Amino acid sequence: MRRGNLLLLLVALVVGIAFFRDTISVEADLRLNQVLGNLRVLDANVDARAAILIDSQTGEVLYAQDADTAYPVASMSKMMTEYLLLAAIQEQRVTWEDEVPVSVNAASAEGARVSLEPGRSYPLKDLYEAMAVGSANNAAVAIGEYLAGSTPAFAEQMNLKAAELGLTASSFVNATGLDYDYGQNEMTARDVGMLAYYLIRDFPEIVDLTAQPSVRLTTGERVKNTNLMVQADDHSMSVLGLDGLKTGFTDQAGYCFTGTAKQGDKRLISVVMGAENEAIRFTETKKLLERGFDLESDRKKG
Description:
Elements lengths: L2 H21 L2 H7 L17 E6 L5 E5 L5 E2 L5 H13 L8 E3 L2 H4 L13 E3 H11 L2 H12 L2 H15 L20 E2 L1 H14 L3 H5 L3 E3 L5 E3 L17 E9 L3 E10 L2 E10 L2 H24 L1
Antiparallel strand pairs: 1-2, 1-11, 3-6, 4-5, 7-8, 9-10, 10-11
Helix pairs in contact: 3-6, 3-8, 5-6, 6-7
């Protein structure tokens, strides 16, 4: 091969590798990291069934604990409901001002809830805020029915989106994450972390809402955030820059939490699944996030 042609080939190869590396997105890096199993860059034994800590900019997994076993995921499922709703808003298939009818099925959803009467309609934005901040199950069911016509049809949309996003170990049967005789939503800690990454990447405005200690609906009802880490009166659980994201609890799932915080230009995403009580899911999140940011600081110094 002539020297000039060889040089051109080498240049093309370097450019191609750079382009390929750029297009290996964060989510692909996260999936590739699965082969590493319980990777632990950090020294942090988490008091929970499963956990993961992710650098959302690089895809580096800083900590993983049983991160690839699917478990009941409880209300962290609502991140998928939020994703599908925000996509529908973005695509102008629905608007925040839409009046959403509440069925008997939606109004009767158990667990966390807001005041919704069957047969009445409520602004879609109210239902979204009640779900994202207060984890309201009746609001989530109403949203799912509005977007897809029924809970089974919405669950199908959730599963299709999970497949599209590469969440290969996730399965959904409803919009809420509640456990029923007919089944329950299940995800791995890695898939939960990836879903959180996609949600924040595609709809960054979500953290402006989930960072709020409470919201007031147009009905006048005040909804308190189920995430105690953003409550101003509980500094023992606070982490600098924490602005989300989603709690979860059922008897089968245990206490769960997907947390996220941004310090400077660095955002971390943590997932804790199956903690024994409400406090532990937050204290373990605090431990993961703070050690993750400490690691970043040490790397910059080194």
